[in-house]
Amino acid sequence: MYNQKVLDAFAHPQNVGEIENPDGEGTVGNATCGDIMRITLRIENDVITDAKFQTFGCAAAIATSSTATQMVIGMTVDEALKLTNARVVEELEGLPPQKIHCSVLAEEAIKKAIEDYRAKKEGKTVDKSKVDYV
Ligand SMILES: [Zn+2]
Fold it and tell me: Per-residue confidence at 132, pLDDT binned at 50, 70, 90?
């Protein structure tokens, strides 16, 4: 059901782990599949210099997290906010239709991590214990 590119990304995911004292972090989940994804970002002068993820989920969730983190490294936060799940799926040369919802997690986790970064810059505190279900 998965193409070779997705299987490769699942078998050899990049950027697995957690950045210590990240500049932004976001955790999202989806109720349909039960996937939970946490993304941590290192951001310097509004440019994402590192991104790592921890995903408890299906092959589609892991493959899209890996690909999305690879894509956002080097982007400005504004560019990263425009990264859509459709673009990540395109990079993976497609996902089975019933697995598209899993790719939404990567987009949402990155958005949430950037919101966290911006909130911190403004001196606001963010409750990170909360998982948003998308
Ligand atoms: Zn899933």
Answer: confident
Residue 71 alpha carbon to ligand 1 centre in Å: 20
Q: Whole-structure pTM over 0.85, yes or no?
A: yes
Mean pLDDT of the chain: 95
Q: Is 58 a catalytic residue?
A: no
- Cα separation values, 111 from 3, 4, 12, 26, 45, Å: 27, 28, 24, 8, 17
Domain ranges of the chain: 4-122
In the set 71, 102, 104, 114, the catalytic residue is: 102
Q: Which two tokens stand for residue 82?
A: 């425009």
Q: Which among 91, 123, 83, 100 has a CA at the least distance from the CA of 30?
A: 100
What CATH code would you report for 4-122? 3.90.1010.10
Q: What separation in Å is there between the alpha carbon of 45 and the centre of ligand 1?
A: 33
Task: Express as a percent the part of the chain with pLDDT over 90.
Answer: 87
Catalytic residue chosen out of the listed positions 16, 33, 58, 81: 33
